[in-house]
Amino acid sequence: MRFVLTTHYGQDVNLFRHNGQRFWYALLAVSVVVAPLFLSTFYVGELVLVFIWAIAGIGLMLLVGYTGLVSLGHAAFLALGAYCHAVLLGYGVPFAVSAPVAVAFTALVGALVGIPALRMTGVYLAIATLAFERIVAYGIEHWEPVTGGLRGMSVPQPDFFGVSLADSYVLYYVSLGVLAAGLFAAANLLRSPTGRAFVAVRDSEISAESMGVHLARTKTTAFAVSAAFTGLAGVLLAHRIGYLAPDAFTVQTSIQLLLLVVVGGLGSLHGVVFGAIFVGYLPQVIALARDVLPSAVGQIPGLELGIFGLILALFLVFEPLGLYGRWLKIRSWLSLFPLYRKATHKRQKAYLRTERVQ
Amino acid sequence: MEVFQLLLSGLSQGCVYGLIALGFVMIYKATEMLNFAQGDMMMLGAFVAFTFVNLAGLPFFVGFLITLVVMVGFGMGLERTVIRPMIGEPPFAVLMLTIGLGFILRAVAGAIWGSGTRTLDVPFAGRVLEVGGVVLGYENLVVIGGTALLCIGLWAFFRYSRIGIAMQAASQNQLAAYYCGVPVKRVTSLVWGISAAISAAAGVLVAPVMLIDPMMGFLGIKAFAAAIVGGFGSLPGAIVGGLLIGVVEQFAGLYLPAGLGEVSAFVILLVMLMARPQGIFASMQQKKV
Amino acid sequence: MDSDQAALFEARNLSLSFGGVRAVRDVSFEIRRGEVFSIIGPNGAGKTTVFNLINRIYDADEGTMRFNGTEMSRVPGHRVAELGITRTFQNTELFDRATVLDNLLIGRHVHRRTNIVAEFLFLPTVRRQEIAFRSYAERIIDLLELQGSRDQMVGALPYGTRKIVEIARALCAEPELLLLDEPSSGLNPEETEDLSFWIEDISADLGVTIAMVEHDMNLVTAVSNRVMAMADGAAITTGTPAEVQDHPEVLRAYLGD
User: Could you report the per-residue pLDDT of C36-71, keeping only the tens digit for each?
Assistant: First the structure.
């Protein structure tokens, strides 16, 4: 536990509260920058995937974790970003134009999806976003001349300021830069009025409105921002996988994104990074486990998704604050030892909250 | 004549959506929880029936009844072990939990019964009824008839049985019902049980029409659309929404470009949400402060 | 009571029915600048509904409302705070998973002058605005003595503190008119006494006009300039606390015939 004497309001506004934090984040930054020097191409590629998951995760975290709007269809935004970018590149549009256009397009679609969300509570939204995802998937599968349909399409690999994005090392630094910028932008938004309006909408729409928060505009903004981040992740994903096919963007992808935000810890940007590492490496751990386990167990169809589901359920029941929440508890246990009490992190339960008339 | 056949198969498909939607809405009304594993409960029910009828060789109707009993037990057990500890958590958490449960159920079914498709032995398989030149499959007629019987049974249950009335009371105001001596916990448990059994019945009814496999629960997504189209929170609405989506899907599949039938349910849903978000049978109201 | 007698808020012939139940019938009243105006009445008299009408949660079937001379019967709900009216809720409607400070900062939302692009980059304008927001919020924290719970999650606070946080949040918007919906419900006698001092402070130090719905007659008598009594959706009488308390129809409404 560290107490900081605040002497100016500006200190509350800053992203880092004290020099200790600055030191650890700087150390982290240096280590991810030099990491590729010591890693093989394969691991660099895997890290790129983690970064991409994290960028998409920022988007979903802003929506689910901060605004309290559920989306079961975020794979659609990932797909829209990836396809829009790849198609534009195919027409010879330079990267510097096609990437922003793809992100803007995804944000626009996100805002449109947000419109019905204005009149909907959780139930409706969850199902509506699921329906939206199915419709986008249908469009991609059947608009063959543009998307290549079920066969898929290869992603042109343009030069990015003279270097090729097909190179994992280049993509590593580009993704890292985008992720860092994304986290910075999201953290900024969250310490500004818009971010607080998100939280207000999440916790009580009625009083948010009475405090002057424009519900419709806030929700649409949340959807647009969320879709933009996810679309940006899609742009990078297109380069990472090099070949787009509909089976890369399914309901399963949407669920993996939700797993990311839940396991990482709802309502925290740290959680996005923890969750991305988790979701990025889980399939490999499962693949390793398959080799070790007896084949009768290892070959169960749907095992991977089953394990996803199990982990999701375990987190929801036992650690709703996610990995980041767990980390906070460990940290305060270490600093308070031997005075730590379990009640320090007692869970808040909201009984009798209802969306219906009593 | 083709129109009648399409209508019939649409209605029978719609009945299945409607039944799953019914189970979904029942749980929502009673507990304000969304059970996204509803489709997977249907899948599980179909496999349980397959086990008793095909593997154990019991007569179809005996196997069917045992399946219902087993699924009531399963639903209640699930509520007791997994859902009840989640009371008081945000609705989103419960929703995610049931999505997770769906994946687990699929993996478990895959582990027990394998990933291949199975066919349930039914006494009416492949038989047809010809009425004035229209060929009607028994399978479809059985789905429609079965759904009708089930709905009548449920209606009578809610209308006349003591526990059914208690359920209605609890779904309208849990706290007030509790004060009036309704055992709310037991009622909630039973709601999950009945909901699981309804889904299982849907699974058994649909089994002759579409094969059984661990992924058949994805059909549930369309059932959720049906629930909303019907007007969330309305039991008759769930059935009507299901029928509407089932029929439209059949006709869209034939008359519209390839694959549009698949997504027509979702298009209907989105159009409905834009035009009349309260659904066909409106029942939801605004929160009170 | 030498407060400015001009009406800050004026309601004329408000009526609202919910499916045949006439929740508010033909209610007219005015709230004068600088006063504490209380609405009393038995449960179900339509007091909170009147607040919900002012707050534009409900659309009145009939009648008009003017605030500061502006017709506001059809203003959208989120604009009400901007006009200068904020409120608290009967059972508190706070942002539970945010700190007390963040709740108060949301109260400053109506004074936001930055756009989302500037906020993404956290430009100096945003920083200056944040610092200004905080200095105002700290003023309110000092006024209502919330220093101790400033950085705590609202959901974890005791009920009495939550009620005060809600008042603080409403004050952060710098309203001209503050609506308090049963501020003392759920408070113990000491907390209620504190509340009466705070209401006086808010009225005197910040110059905020206050309208409140309240059951506790001691509190009403202690702080109100004028009181309106309601029963069955209609206004019975308006006057000083003593006049209203002794009014025969008010007694009948409370005690029955």
Answer: 999 999 888 899 999 999 999 999 999 999 999 899
Residue C87 at interface with chain A, using a CB cutoff of 8 Å = yes
Q: Please state the pTM of the whole predicted model.
A: 0.89
Q: How far is B289 from chain C, CA to nearest CA, in Å?
A: 7
Domain ranges for chain C, please list them: 1-84+175-257, 94-173
Interchain CB contact of C155 with A (< 8 Å): yes
Q: Among A135, A251, A309, select the one facing B101 at the smallest CB separation.
A: A309
Per-residue CA distances from B163 to A202, B113, B170, B188, B195 (Å): 36, 36, 10, 11, 15
Within 32-61 of C, beta carbons closer than 8 Å to B belong to 48, 52, 57
Q: Do A306 and B106 touch (CB under 8 A)?
A: yes
CATH tag for A20-345 (out of 1.20.59, 1.10.10, 1.10.3470, 1.20.1420) = 1.10.3470
**Nearest CA to CA, how far is C90 from chain A (Å)?**
12
Amino acid B69: pLDDT: 96
Interchain CB contact of B106 with A (< 8 Å):
yes
Burial class (CB in 10 A: 0-12, 13-18, 19+), C137: buried
Nearest to B246 by CA among B16, B10, B3: B10
Closest-CA distance of chain B to residue C185, Å:
14
pLDDT tier at B31 (50, 70, 90 boundaries)?
confident
The hierarchical CATH code for the domain C1-84+175-257 is: 3.40.50.300
What pLDDT was estimated at residue A356? 42
Distance from CA of B288 to the nearest CA of C (A): 10
CA-to-CA distance for A6 and C226, rounded, in angstroms? 44
- The tokens describing C34, both together, are 């600088």
State the sign of the Cα–Cα–Cα–Cα dihedral C86, C88, C89, C92. positive
Whole-number Å distance between alpha carbons of A77 and A136? 9
| Contact between A122 and B260 using a beta-carbon 8 Å cutoff | no
Q: Give the position of tokens 């988790």.
A: A278
User: Which sequence spans correspond to the domains of chain A?
Assistant: 20-345
Q: Are C40 and C227 in contact (CB under 8 A)?
A: yes
Judged by CB atoms closer than 8 Å, whether chains meet at A132 and B232 is answered as no
**Domains of chain B: which residue ranges?**
2-214
Residues in chain A: 358
Residue B54, phi-psi category: left (phi > 0), alpha (psi -120 to 50), beta (remainder): alpha
Closest CA–CA distance from residue C127 to any residue of chain B (Å):
33
Neighboring chains of C (3 or more beta-carbon pairs < 8 A)? A, B
Rounded Cα distance between A31 and A34, Å, is: 5
Look at residue A351 in the predicted model and tell me its pLDDT.
Answer: 44
Is A144 part of the contact surface with chain B (CB cutoff 8 Å)?
no
CA distance C118 to B267: 38
Per CB-CB distance under 8 Å, the chain A contacts of C52 are none
Q: Is the CB of residue C119 less than 8 Å from the CB of residue A186? A: no
Alpha carbon C92 to its chain's center:
12
- The C-alpha atoms of residue A337 and residue A324 are separated, in whole angstroms, by 20
Rounded to an integer, what distance in angstroms lies between the CA atom of residue B257 and that of residue A339?
A: 68
From the list C57, C109, C156, the residue facing A211 with the nearest CB is C109
Buried residues in A16-32 as b, exposed as e (16+ CB within 10 A): eeeeeeeeeeeeeeeeb
CB-based contact (8 Å) between A206 and chain B?
yes
